[in-house]
Design a protein that fits this description.
The chain is α/β, with parallel strands linked by helices and 213 residues long. It has helices spanning 8-15, 23-35, 41-54, 69-80, 93-105, 119-125, 142-152, 178-191; strands at residues 59-63, 85-90, 112-116, 130-135, 153-161, 196-201, 207-212. The protein has one domain: Vaccinia Virus protein VP39 (Rossmann fold). Helix 7 links the parallel strand 4 and strand 5. It is globular and about 45 Å long. The N and C termini lie far apart (36 Å).
């Protein structure tokens, strides 16, 4: 079972708040629309930018970066915060190369660091802690990723997790797929923990925003 969580009218209205994007970012949006490749889209992207600006993020780690659309929003924020580093990690070398081309065209060579590999392991091995961590890996891996995220996120840092409404599949008790269970379990882990201040925002496919105490 999947359901449309937000009407097209509401989606269009929410997107009207998003300022014009750089041409290369619009190219990335057009590619996603043409190919069906999943990206967070302009409204969620701008919210990610806003969250990164609000906390003055200078060091951002992405778990599951695709071809760099969400990375572009975080890189914009880090640049506007005075500079820093955004870690783009993806398992596929072709996606990593495509991201390099798009983000290079936007002038982010000095901000984005690229790695091809398993995202949670890359986070575990990374030096230091991060101001913001964005999680959009395969959903069965959501629960196991949280302890690593909690260790690598600084106090007061922000965790953003995509697809937390999972097209409504989380509401179907008969849906016991590993992906659906992964989304449910992560929501439970966060909501039952005293380590987080968290809200679930009904934007696009559901965005969890959590501040580490």
């Amino acid at each position: 079972m999947t359901i449309d969580l937000i009407t097209p009218q509401v989606q269009d209205y929410m997107q009207s708040f998003v300022p014009p994007r750089p041409p290369e970012m619009q190219n990335m949006e057009e590619y996603a629309q043409k190919t069906g490749f999943p990206i967070i889209g302009p409204a969620v992207g701008y919210l990610c930018y806003q969250m990164a600006r609000l906390i003055g993020a200078r060091k951002v780690f992405e778990l599951g970066s695709g071809y760099g659309y969400s990375t572009a929003w975080f890189a914009l924020a880090v640049r506007d915060n005075g500079g820093g580093r955004v870690y783009h990690v993806v398992w596929d070398a072709d996606l990593s190369q495509r991201a390099r081309e798009h983000l290079g065209a936007m002038g982010f060579e000095d901000i984005v660091q690229y790695q091809v590999g398993e995202a949670v392991q890359a986070l575990r091995a990374a030096d230091g802690t991060f101001d913001l961590i964005f999680n959009d890996i395969e959903k069965p891996g959501y629960p196991a990723s949280l302890p690593v995220i909690q260790e690598k996120l600084r106090p007061g840092g922000v965790l953003i997790v995509d697809n937390m409404l999972w097209a409504g599949r989380i509401f179907d008790p008969g849906d016991q797929a590993a992906s659906t269970q992964g989304v449910r379990q992560l929501a439970q882990q966060i909501s039952q923990s005293n380590a987080w201040i968290a809200s679930l925002l009904p934007i696009r496919d559901g965005l969890l925003v959590a501040c580490k105490k």
